[in-house]
Design brief:
single chain; 357 residues; mainly alpha; CBS-domain; 2 domains; three-stranded mixed β-sheet; two-stranded antiparallel ribbon; 14 helices; 7 strands
């Protein structure tokens, strides 16, 4: 679970809005907001568990959380059919139901609470704020702006017609327009909460834009374009002492272990050193790992990244063609390879423009 940097900074905004009500009530208002987000995300996590979705991470914003799924199957299930509606309805229903329960409890305990008096959300009226913060967060997600729940449904509808990337860009564009409208309306109406909501919708839309750009890149880059073709291999019959000598003269952290043309294992530099220290000189075969995944030259970078993420401690993926290792991709060299590939493509575009002109 990750918390966006602006979430804790919102505590300072709540303190500023508290004015003469005091620091304690300002922090209390922030806790009221956190409670509304907790109710919403707990409901969504329960629905995700009920649907069998696997999550890799949750990014928390003051308007709610953004899920990163651990596999493509979970991503598809969350954005199609009944799963999409269940995930979209869980948060607003939980917030509105909590608001109604709190209102009933407060009115039952003390009938003189004026729930509909202005202001609805303020550090000076924390009891009333508890009700309206829950209701406000629930109704906010009925706006058709991503990453709000209605926006997720809108993006899902576009995706069925246009595809993932165009629909995500369309939803992000609509979101940014609505966010800007909300911030302007907040300034005109002197509503700080409307400004805050618009600001964080804008941030969520920008995060989505970055995610779409990254997804577009990783789905168009193939492994043959970024794999290392100049690499060293070890044999299972090599001694660990010989392998250590190879490590001294190589920048590689991990080595494919091959018997003839066949890949049989992977061993890391650290594993070689540890085996020599603990067990003395032996053979690579005894120390190598046989748990590995391979990719093909035509596989996309996105597919390989998912393999690296799902593999426990996986730092190297050999690229094989007809059973023969033709390249390797490691976490260590992936980012530098991507930046160099981007530069190469830029030069190719410039050369193409010069030829056309």
């Amino acid at each position: 679970m990750r918390v966006h940097v602006f979430f804790p900074l919102l505590a300072l905004v709540c303190l500023a809005l508290s004015g003469s009500d005091g620091i304690g009530r300002g922090l209390g208002l922030f806790v009221v907001l956190v409670a509304a987000v907790v109710v919403r995300e707990t409901a969504r996590l329960l629905v995700a568990a009920w649907l069998g979705l696997r999550l890799r991470a949750i990014l928390l914003l003051p308007i709610g959380g953004m899920f990163a799924y651990a596999d493509p199957e979970s991503q598809e299930s969350s954005s199609q059919g009944g799963g999409q509606f269940a995930m979209a309805l869980a948060g607003p229903l939980a917030n509105v139901a909590t608001a109604l329960l709190l209102a009933a409890a407060f009115l039952g305990a003390s009938g003189d609470i004026k729930l509909f008096a202005q202001p609805w959300i303020s550090a000076g009226v924390l009891v009333r704020s508890m009700v309206w913060m829950q209701a406000g967060l629930g109704f906010l997600h009925l706006m058709p702006a991503y990453p709000l729940d209605a926006g997720r449904l809108l993006r899902g509808g576009y995706a069925r017609k246009l595809g993932f990337a165009p629909s995500a860009r369309a939803a992000s564009g609509i979101s940014q327009v609505l966010a800007l409208t909300a911030m302007v309306a907040g300034m005109l109406l002197h509503s700080p909460w409307l400004i805050i909501a618009g600001f964080f919708i804008m941030i969520g839309a920008q995060i989505e834009d970055q995610g779409v750009f990254f997804q577009t890149v990783v789905d168009t880059v193939h492994m043959r374009e970024v794999m290392l073709t100049d690499f060293a291999t070890l044999s299972p019959s090599d001694t660990l002492a010989d392998a250590l000598v190879r490590c001294v003269h190589s920048l590689q952290e991990d080595f494919p272990v091959v018997r003839g043309p066949q890949l049989v294992g992977i061993i890391s530099r650290q594993r070689i050193v540890d085996a020599l220290r603990n067990d003395g000189n032996g053979y690579v075969q005894a120390a190598m790992s046989k748990a590995f995944q391979v990719a093909r030259p035509e596989d996309t970078l996105g597919t390989t990244i998912r393999r690296i993420q799902t593999g426990r401690g996986l730092s190297l993926i050999p690229i094989t063609d007809s059973g023969r290792v033709v390249g390797i991709v490691s976490v260590q060299n992936l980012m530098s390879a991507m930046s160099l590939l981007a530069e190469q493509r830029r030069l190719e575009r410039e050369e193409a423009r010069e030829r056309d002109s």
